[in-house]
Fold this sequence. Notes:
Layout: H1 3-19, H2 23-33, H3 38-49, H4 53-70, H5 79-86, H6 95-105, E1 112-115, E2 120-123, E3 127-133, E4 139-143, E5 155-156, E6 165-169, H7 177-189
Antiparallel strand pairs: 1-2, 2-3, 3-4, 4-6, 5-6
Amino acid sequence: MTDLNKALATQLDNIVKRTGKPLSELAAIMKASGLTKHGELVTMLKKTLGMGHGDANTLVHTVRQSEDANKEGPRVSSPDEALNSLYTGPKAVLRPIHDKLLEAMRHFGEFEEAPKKTYISYRRKKQFTMIGPATNSQVEVGLNMKGVAATGRLRELPPGQMCQYKVRLGEASEVDSELIDWIRTAYEAAG
């Protein structure tokens, strides 16, 4: 079992202990709510069961992943397939930005690529960045790091978001050493 799998198993065990409910019952509560959006389910779990954001988010993700595995065929079978899916139609012109970021990140060391519906999460022990098309003309890079001064380019996000900072890019030429240094800072903090 990888360290990430062990960490997830430990977090799920702790969720069961804290709520006093098995995962199957928690999944049933989610289903019975009638809610379908990830954020709505997270909010519901936080309000009705008093869960913290991290636990609620992990539970929703795990239950949905399990449900998806029980459906016919996986949503996305590989990170490359996810990239192809994210960058189609008018967003296809943005793919070189993501590719250039990924090429630079591969020099940092090992990390996990976790495709989501609208972005790809890059993780070590925890997520350090998320990258995906924000619009038809911009890629958004979310960064998890602390103690970095925001700039006109590096925007600090309000507490409670999936990331602490974000940067938007419209061209591959905007992938420069400054941005790569911010991603490296986030990468190192996630180890």
